[in-house]
Structure formats: structure tokens, C-alpha cells
Model the fold of this input.
Amino acid sequence: MLQTQEILVERYQLQRVLGETASRQTWLAQDLTNQEQVVIKLLTATDQLQWDNLRLFEREAKILRQLDHPYIPQYRDYFVLERDIIYFALVQEYIPAKSLKELLAEGKIFSETEAREIAIAVLKILIYLHKLSPSVLHRDIKPSNLLIKQSQNQKTQIYLVDFGAVQDRAAAEGATFTVVGTYGYAPLEQFGGRATPASDLYALGASLVNLVTNISPADLPQFDSQMQFAHLVKLNPGFVKWLQQMIEPNLEYRFQSALEALKALEINQLAITGMNKNISYTPILVYKSLDKLEIHIPLLNKNTFELIFGGVGLFVWICFIFTSGSTASFWVGWLLFIFGTLLIAWLTLPSFIENEIYFDNKTFEIKWKLFNITLKRQRGNVLKIDKVYSSLTGGMGNKKVPEVTLAVGIDEYSFGRLKAGLTKEESRYIASEIRNWLGI
Done:
């Protein structure tokens, strides 16, 4: 039995046990050649040692030796220790940081901002691993294998550790496979021996769900084999949809690469952090943040005021002319005045319709307002929006006018068709802002 302060191969002095199972020990040790702390993982060679365990251990050492990434612990050494029991030893860099699992155990629930930062950091590591030739699959991403550390400039650093289940794609081509992974974090195809880069994405998505809910993925309710978490958290709908695609049980519907997942997240990130201003070619106002999106389509044709008041003045003058004569002329004049006023209102009031569109974590609302009076409103579930698109629809006469449509199943919610002056570019801009914020 190994003891604290014992020196292995005249170089590594054991300090304390970091973890222990029936056949494995993990020690924090001091490298006496450079006085650096290292982690030593020991696999005990007993009668109960299975060949697959030794094969995975040697594969971990082999692959770590080939890796060179600032947020993956560096390989240091590999040796066999012969005592009363034979130990296979892997030495690697020590990262003085807590695991995300430890923070969850302390009761921490991660904010959306923190979860996004972790997602981006791990995706960049996976892009590196999956682009190697052959690709390297971690196959056991979970909170206990993600370490978090604050650098001197207060930047959060995330490390991916424990490559004990690692596999390169070349090794996966054989007829036999070893079932690895942690229940709740590993997708079904991995337990069938068909791990792909998308399998690591599933594990990352499940880990992120764990962080924002502080509930193990295995304990979450499921529907059609997909864990249900959206009702437990208040997250940006785009981030919720992104997470749902990460943990999609059907491999075909999941992100296929870490780069694809990162680009989708960055588009949504820009949609919630971009400048809140009206773009140069339109007075449309957009306010966006993590938890809400507001779009105000104001009065676009202010010259309509002159048209209305000029027209009303004209009919007042006509009324005055007719009322200065006979009784018959008086009534004709007033009928012309009323008819003309209604005609002008019918032609011009739609130009005064303003739209306000509001989205939060759960619902959306569309308002049609005339002179700040709400004429109509529609509400719906923001997470059920399937598509957002701009199109041309029939306006007055045969004229086609732009509008924006939210598709929610078989229902459609459209706005913009009564606006005078809404251009194709503006409708496309509005649809794009909504899509990006929603992660569609």
C-alpha cells in the first residue's frame, strides 16, 4: 500500500490522495526534479484487473502524450511501479482548480452568462481534439471533468481533464468496443459503441443543463427520450433552443461538429449583446438583452400628417361654401364633408399604426397601436416559435406590402402589413433580429 511522503521512481513524492477506487488511485505529488506539483494516476494490476481497463489506461497515456493544448493537462511521464503489487502510473500536469461538480455540491447554480462562457471554452477545446488526425473523442465530459480557474486578469479558464475514456476514431473501427461514459451525460449511440464528435457535444450540453439547473441530467423528466429543463430555468430562448439541439437524442438532429455549435452560439450571443440602436437606414428601434427583446416600429411616414390636415381643411372649406347657400346645399355639403373625412381616414390612418413586439423568456406579445391606444394584441409561447420570416402580402389594391410572420405550429402571427413605408430590407432586418435572438 502506497503511503504519503513515499517517493516513487526516485522522483515523485506522494502528498495526498485525490481519489480512489478498487483498482485506481489518484495522487497529488511533488516532482522533486523541478519542485512542481503533478497528478499521478495509478492502475493496480490485480487478478481482478480487466484487460479493457489496462487498454484504456495505456490509450490515455498514449493520446495525452500527443496533445498540446493550454487547457488540457500536459503529459509528464509514464512508468510501471513494481512492488508487492504492480502499478501502472501516468503522470500529468496538476491544475490547482475546483471542478464544476464541486461547485454544484456547494449549492452554486450557474448563471446563463457563466454557462455560455463555459460552453464557448469547452467547444474550443473540442474543436482542437476533433480536428486531430485521427479525431480524439473524450467520451466522458461532465462537471467533475471540467475545472474552473480564475487567471490573474480575472479571466475564467476552463480545463478539460480525465481522458480515461478517450478514444481516437481509428481505434473505433474495430469490431469490439468498450462501453464508457456516465449515465445521463453520454448519448445512446455511445453506449452502442458508435461514438462520434457529436457524442461529446451531447455530453457538454447535458453538463450545461446540469449547471443551470443544479439537477443531474439523469434526474430530469424526459419526453421522447429528451431531458426537459426549459420549465425550470429563465434563460434566453435562443440559448434554450441551442441546448436542446446539443442534447437532441437523435444524432441526425444534433449539431454535427463543435465548430457548427460554436458558430450557432456566437450568432445568438451577438443577437443579445449587440448595440441597442436603430440601424442607419430605418427608424425601427431594437432593444435586446439576455432575457428580453423589444422591437418598436414607429410612424414611418410623417408627411401623412400634412395630408390629413390638408384634406380636412379642404373639406371644411367645401362645407363652408355649401352651408352659406340653401338648406339643400347645407346637407349636401355636410354629407360631402363626412364622406371625405372617412375617405381620408381610410386612406391615411393605417399609416399611423405603430407596432410594438415584445419577447421574454416565456412569451411574446404583438401590439398594434394608433395614437398610443392599443387597438389589438396577440400573445403566444416564445419557445414554440418554429419559424420567423419576412414576405410580401396583399395590401390596398393590388399592391404587395412587406410583413413579418411568426410561425407557431399551424398558427401564424403577422405584423407590418398595415404600415406605410415598411421596406423589404426593414422586414428582413426585423425577422433576422428575432431569429437570431430566438436561436432559430
